[in-house]
């Protein structure tokens, strides 16, 4: 389909567990018809439990349906009230399961991370790879707190950024200030790096 996407840019949004921040932005960008995928960088997928020292832990690749069912069986009222079941219901409408970034072989033009720790993990992974394409990949961090409200605000900020850069040649993105790219200053913190695409 020729006009499937509004931009040729291939975008990945990355948080720790591919549950909240990256999925909120994934859904928002997809509705705007951007070519987007989302990932996590953690060892496991972790969600809050009924006690602070008892998180719910899953392997990447466990379907959102299965995680939804597991939490509903454990304590449906609790996980409905704290918003996790609503979040998982949204997620399973977007894609099947949380995906680990370090296992993906697809090429992207722009990688957007949602916190500095995740940014550092992506940078470490990119530095460990041997370049196979003579093309740049832009790694951009936007700090987003891991809660529903901030994830929504962060999704708007990421969309602002991608909308602004989508009209520019990918090889020239580094010549523009990120503050210029997001003039409404919705995002609180930026870090930007460039690699040859691995």
Automatic annotation (TrEMBL):
Alphabetical keyword list: Hydrolase, mRNA processing, Nucleus, Protein phosphatase
Entries under InterPro entries matching the protein: RNA_pol_II_suA
GO CC, any one term: nucleus
GO BP terms in the entry: mRNA 3'-end processing
Keyword Nucleus annotated: yes
Superkingdom of source: Eukaryota
Reactions catalysed, as given in the entry: O-phospho-L-threonyl-[protein] + H2O = L-threonyl-[protein] + phosphate; O-phospho-L-seryl-[protein] + H2O = L-seryl-[protein] + phosphate
The EC number(s) this enzyme carries: 3.1.3.16
Compartmental location: Nucleus
Family: Belongs to the SSU72 phosphatase family.
Protein known as: RNA polymerase II subunit A C-terminal domain phosphatase SSU72
Taxonomic source organism: Culex pipiens (House mosquito)
Phylogenetic lineage: Eukaryota, Metazoa, Ecdysozoa, Arthropoda, Hexapoda
């Amino acid at each position: 389909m020729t006009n499937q996407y509004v931009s040729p840019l291939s975008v990945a949004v990355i948080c720790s567990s591919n549950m909240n921040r990256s999925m909120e932005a994934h859904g928002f960008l997809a509705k705007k018809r951007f070519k987007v995928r989302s990932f996590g960088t953690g060892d496991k997928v972790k969600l809050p439990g009924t006690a602070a020292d008892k998180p719910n832990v899953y392997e990447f690749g466990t379907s959102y349906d299965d995680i939804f069912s597991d939490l509903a069986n454990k304590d449906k009222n609790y996980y409905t009230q704290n918003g996790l079941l609503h979040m998982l219901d949204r997620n399973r409408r977007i894609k099947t399961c949380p995906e680990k970034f370090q296992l993906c072989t697809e090429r992207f033009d722009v990688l957007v991370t949602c916190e500095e720790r995740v940014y550092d993990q992506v940078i470490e992974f990119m530095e460990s790879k041997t370049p196979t394409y003579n093309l740049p990949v832009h790694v951009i961090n936007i700090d987003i707190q891991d809660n529903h409200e901030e994830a929504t605000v962060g999704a708007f900020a990421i969309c602002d950024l991608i909308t602004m850069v989508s009209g520019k040649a990918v090889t020239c993105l580094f010549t523009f200030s990120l503050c210029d790219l997001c003039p409404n200053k919705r995002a609180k913190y930026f870090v930007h790096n460039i690699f040859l695409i691995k």
